[in-house]
Amino acid sequence: MSHEALNPIHPSVLPELDPVFVQLYNEHVANTPAGPIDHALLRTKYSVLYSYGTGPAPDCARVYDAEVPGHNGDMIPVRVYEPASPGPWPVHIDFHGGGWGLGDLDTESHICKHICVKADVCVIDVDYRLVPEHAFPIGIQDSFAALQHIHAKGAQQFKIDPTRISLGGVSAGGNIALVCAHLARDTNIPLKLVAVGTPTVDDISKYKTASEAPWPSMQAMEHAPTLNWARLKWFDNLKWQSIAPTGPERASQIAAVSWYANILDAPNFEGLPTTLIYTAGCDPLRDEGEAYAKKLIANGNEVIQKRFAGVPHPFMHMDKGVLFRPWLVMGKKLTSFPPQICGKQSSLLI
């Protein structure tokens, strides 16, 4: 499979993209020669993949690495960002994106710094284990175990206020945060907020082609830059290849997947925390993220859902110069900066 995400922008989506992004992409990415997708190489480069659109981040008072128990008690790394104010602080737990098989503690470091400084909260970024070395849904399992530990022991280990927890993430990390909100509710862990960008929601293994998917954005943005249908299927295949092909191990692993394959199938949508969902106008995942928001609303939850026009899937990473800065102010109140991207106003769907 060619490295299609680096090819020039497809003419079918060019009119839907903001000219500022198009210029940035053309200057830095579009002429990169296509080649086979090398998973190991992509891992080494993933955390700087969108650096051409990433601006400088503010300095936190302190940043350090630590460990917390993950799934089955195995220790996993976390990175802690502390604000300058005296603790105990509210805590925002971040789960990075990367399609379940990419990403590390550097992937969303600039996002974590912005949230820490602008929201005056402690941010803990979770380095969950990846597929295919570990069976899906290891990212969800590790992340929820980390949340449980931070709620139970975080006051002592991290000087945080365990009654003021928010969750967030981008793409697959957004999926993890949304799933963990269900699990937290079911285990009486109070959450103040869940704030996610461009989350994955549906199980696209059910569809052989983009035209089979029920989401118009899958067809309209089949050839979108940075994330398109072919790349989505590559990530999805990586996820399902982590499951044992036969035997009792496969049966237990499939049982563990449960409704995580498509979080619209979650058994209970009531009593979930206030949820903020950002979607991108030029993202194949746009419509499924908005469908999830509508299901939350239909079940009586408080939801803010914003679609940003003219931008592709990883726009949360792109805050250089005039590009959008989607950082949130969290703590005593939730505020979003003006919803503007390169001169285009977003739509606000509630």
Automatic annotation (TrEMBL):
<protein>
    <recommendedName>
        <fullName>Alpha/beta hydrolase fold-3 domain-containing protein</fullName>
    </recommendedName>
</protein>
<dbReference type="GO" id="GO:0017000">
    <property type="term" value="P:antibiotic biosynthetic process"/>
</dbReference>
<dbReference type="Pfam" id="PF07859">
    <property type="entry name" value="Abhydrolase_3"/>
</dbReference>
<feature type="domain" description="Alpha/beta hydrolase fold-3">
    <location>
        <begin position="94"/>
        <end position="316"/>
    </location>
</feature>
<dbReference type="InterPro" id="IPR013094">
    <property type="entry name" value="AB_hydrolase_3"/>
</dbReference>
<dbReference type="InterPro" id="IPR029058">
    <property type="entry name" value="AB_hydrolase_fold"/>
</dbReference>
<dbReference type="GO" id="GO:0072330">
    <property type="term" value="P:monocarboxylic acid biosynthetic process"/>
</dbReference>
<dbReference type="GO" id="GO:0016787">
    <property type="term" value="F:hydrolase activity"/>
</dbReference>
<dbReference type="InterPro" id="IPR050466">
    <property type="entry name" value="Carboxylest/Gibb_receptor"/>
</dbReference>
